[in-house]
Amino acid sequence: MSISKQYLKTKPACKVTFKLAAARLPDATQVALLGEFNDWDPAALLMKKSKAGDFSASITLPKDSEYQFRYLIDGTTWLNDDEADGFSQSDMSHDQNSVLKI
Hints:
Elements: E1 2-7, E2 13-20, E3 31-35, E4 48-49, E5 55-62, E6 66-73, E7 77-79, E8 86-89, E9 96-101
Antiparallel strand pairs: 1-2, 2-5, 3-6, 4-5, 6-7, 6-9, 8-9
């Protein structure tokens, strides 16, 4: 897993790219990136699968913000990002959510 941040020079925003390695999800056919930035909508941001089997997605978000997020694998399995900036207790379950700080 990896998260890369590229701050924009022309706007107070940051392009964030999320990547999940194929080795981590060898049998996954679909991965959705859900979070506060898309109202936890499982159809809002589906990650693209490369020929190598890696999944990735990019989103531009305002600077000086913080968002909780998680990955949804094949519509059934939730996954946090080990490289998140932090973790926070979910309001919906006993699980924790990954936290992205921009």
